[in-house]
Design a protein that fits this description.
The complex is a heterodimer of chains A (348) and B (259). With 348 residues, chain A is α/β, with parallel strands linked by helices. Chain A has two domains: 5-111 and 273-347, FAD/NAD(P)-binding domain; 117-269, 3-Layer(bba) Sandwich (FAD/NAD(P)-binding domain). Chain A is 28% helix and 26% strand. In chain A, the strands form five sheets. In chain A, strands 3-2-1-7-18 form a five-stranded parallel β-sheet, with helices on one face. In chain A, strands 9-16-10-11-12 form a five-stranded parallel β-sheet. Chain A has a three-stranded antiparallel β-sheet with strand order 4-5-6. In chain A, helix 1 (12-23) runs parallel beside helix 3, helix 1 runs parallel beside helix 8 and helix 5 (181-195) runs parallel beside helix 6 (215-223). The radius of gyration of chain A is 22 Å and the shape is elongated. The relative contact order of chain A is 0.17. By secondary structure, chain B is mostly helical. Chain B folds into three domains: 4-35, no CATH class; 47-138, Fumarate Reductase Iron-sulfur Protein, Chain B, domain 2, CATH 1.10.1060; 146-214, no CATH class. In chain B, strand 2 and strand 3 (25-26) form a beta hairpin. In chain B, helix 9 (146-161) crosses helix 10 (166-176). The chains are: A alpha/beta (348), B mainly alpha (259). At the A-B interface, strand 14 of A face helix 2 of B.
């Protein structure tokens, strides 16, 4: 009998990997830093997910439930890996709780960290209460409270969503596209228009990247919900004490714009997990030059890192959608399973 | 609904006919305003490379037209026609004639560098503006700016002797820019210097005016600098063609020629 598989991170990728390995009769130990499973969609209180429109608590909640009830899966919440040693097939991981977990392979599903908008001070986050992040609007929607101005609780009549906050920006060392913010913003704009039909929603963009089938969400937001898209990167966000004032240039018509809004939303990007330096040193794996966990192989073995026997999946590898994270979790599980089973067969 | 694009239409391209009949229908008067088709026939596909060859223009190819430069711009806030984003676009597309149309605006950049710190792709738009202003000078579209003349006077002396002599810098600069030396403020400044500065310092300054101090063993440095400049000039000549002297535009004809 082989040793269990160690999965670090209980978000969509980790839950998928744990479930698929348990389904084929393998023992799994799932380690989660927080006290709750579900990852960013649950911990950050996302509302409806793209593209299914299901609520995060239902969709990801179901993934959590089937893992929690599975006899093949041992769950360790509130724990991190502090030491990791050994060779493929015979690894030992020491946890912050003092436990030592013998394992045959590990899959890192350690996810990302939301960009903190205070790092773009010119856009008013942290200065004006009515400047919020997409995560906060998700929480307004998922809590049932609805989209309101934090300053006075009123329904906004004009909302601006600024794209590429913390993405595609050399000034703050974040040169990657966070992949999902365009789509999430288009979806969010539609949700705002559905809840508040009198509210005008403007999206300020550099490029629109609603890739693949998500293009449908972009089209719908314009055709059905009349969301307005303006090609402009905003210079600064100020306030007259009540309204939030957005200043920029409508580049397509070469016209300066200074527009008052009730609510400004930052479509924040996905940073590498803040713990990635630590993870890289504990597990002895390489980082991508932008700080994500590096995938060693694109075509041959899915989810391989620079260390044999250690795999990676989900947004730990770079900005990723939930459905692709789940696919990567399954793919990494298959890679790990193939390697471990292959090794034990060779030994017999 | 107002037509926001109106500012893209130039007055010279609008035509109104007092008397016009088309297909038997009278379309005279204001309501029949026509906008002439804008035709750009002479693209200069080398334009981006030409700007990139000048110091500061190196990163112009990075621009993706987000407009951060224009909307953080000090001058744009005063004059909306001052639009670095638009000029970068014209340069990249090779619309030379459109760019030259704004030749009396581009040099107005005050180098505050707010664009530089706003640009998400590190185009360094301030440096691109400087390169563009130099390109306009080099192509003979604009007169050499006073600051360029000053730079020349200053660096000529540094290259020659390793040092500048203040009096000579001021005199050559005034001379080359066609300004009189007898400016009231300058006379007043010299008077106060004579009155207020220690005698020893005045003596040193006087001696310097006459003997032109030189950095010791400057020769090899001067030769190296001159070699480098020659090399760079040759590169620019190759990319941009030789400098074209500025020619003042001909005065507008007093009589409108008959069509």
């Amino acid at each position: 009998m082989t040793k269990p598989f160690l999965i670090i991170g209980g978000g969509p990728a980790g839950l998928a990997a744990a479930h698929s390995l348990a389904s084929v009769g393998q023992k799994v130990v799932l380690v989660e830093k927080e006290n709750k499973l579900g990852g960013a969609p649950i911990l950050s209180g996302y509302a409806k997910l793209v593209p299914s429109g299901e609520w995060a608590k239902d969709a990801i909640g179901a993934m959590v439930d089937r893992v929690v009830g599975n006899p093949n899966i041992t769950i360790k919440t509130g724990a991190t890996v502090v030491e990791f040693s050994g060779e493929p097939g015979t690894f030992t991981a020491k946890l912050s709780t003092g436990d030592a977990i013998d394992n045959s392979a590990s899959i890192l599903c350690t996810g990302f960290t939301h960009f903190d908008s205070v790092n773009k001070p010119e856009w008013g986050f942290g200065t004006f209460p009515d400047v919020v992040s997409t995560t906060q609007v998700e929480q307004m929607i998922s809590s049932g409270q609805g989209v309101r101005r934090p300053s006075n609780g009123e329904k906004p009549k004009r909302v601006a969503i600024l794209l590429c906050v913390g993405s595609r920006d050399r000034q703050i060392g974040r040169e990657w596209c966070s992949k999902i913010c365009c789509t999430v913003s288009a979806k969010m704009a539609m949700e705002i228009r559905e809840e508040l039909p009198d509210c005008h929603v403007y999206i300020y963009y550099m490029d629109i990247r609603t890739f693949g089938l998500y293009e449908e969400i972009y089209w719908k937001s314009q055709e059905e919900q009349k969301v307005k898209y303006i090609k402009a990167r905003i210079a600064e966000v100020t306030s007259d004490g009540d309204k939030v004032i957005v200043k920029g240039e409508d580049t397509l018509v070469k016209r300066p714009i200074t527009i008052p809004f009730d609510l400004v939303v930052h479509a924040i990007g996905m940073d590498p997990n803040v713990d990635n330096m630590l993870i890289s040193s504990v597990f002895g794996i390489d980082l991508h030059h932008w700080g994500f966990l590096k995938q060693e192989n694109t075509y041959g073995v899915m989810g391989a890192t620079s260390r044999p026997g250690v795999y990676v999946a989900g947004s730990a590898t770079g900005p990723e959608t939930i459905d692709d994270s789940i696919a990567q979790g399954n793919a990494a599980a298959m890679s790990a399973l193939a390697a471990v089973v292959g090794q034990s067969m060779a030994a017999e | 609904m107002p037509i926001h694009e109106k500012n893209l239409i130039r007055p010279e391209n609008i035509s109104t006919h007092d008397n016009l009949v088309m297909d038997g229908v009278d379309v005279s008067g204001d309501w029949s305003t026509f906008i002439k088709t804008r035709v750009v026939a002479d693209y200069n596909e080398e334009l981006q490379d030409e700007i990139a060859a000048l110091p500061g223009g190196e990163y112009i190819h990075r621009c993706w037209q987000c407009g951060s430069c224009t909307n953080s711009c000090t001058i744009n806030a005063i004059n909306p026609d001052f639009n670095p984003r638009y000029w970068i676009y014209l340069i990249r597309m090779g619309f030379e004639s459109e760019l030259v149309r704004d030749k009396d605006l581009i040099w107005q950049c005050v180098s505050c560098n707010k664009c530089t710190s706003a640009c998400p792709r590190d185009v360094v738009p301030e440096a691109v503006m400087k390169a563009t202003a130099h390109w306009l000078e080099r192509k003979g579209y604009t007169k050499k700016s006073s600051s360029t003349v000053f730079d020349e006077v200053f660096s000529e002396q540094v290259i020659e002797r390793g040092k500048i002599e203040d009096g000579e810098v001021v005199m050559s600069f005034f001379n080359r820019t066609g300004q009189k030396l007898t400016q009231p403020w300058l006379i007043e400044m010299v008077k106060r210097m004579i009155k207020g500065l220690p005698v020893q310092m005045l003596t040193m300054m006087g001696l310097a005016t006459v003997f032109k101090p030189k950095t010791r063993n400057w020769g090899p440095a001067r030769d190296a600098i001159n070699d480098y400049i020659e090399e760079q000039e040759a590169l620019l000549d190759e990319k941009l063609g030789p400098s074209v002297p500025y020619k003042a535009p001909e005065p507008a004809p007093t009589q409108i020629p008959a069509e």
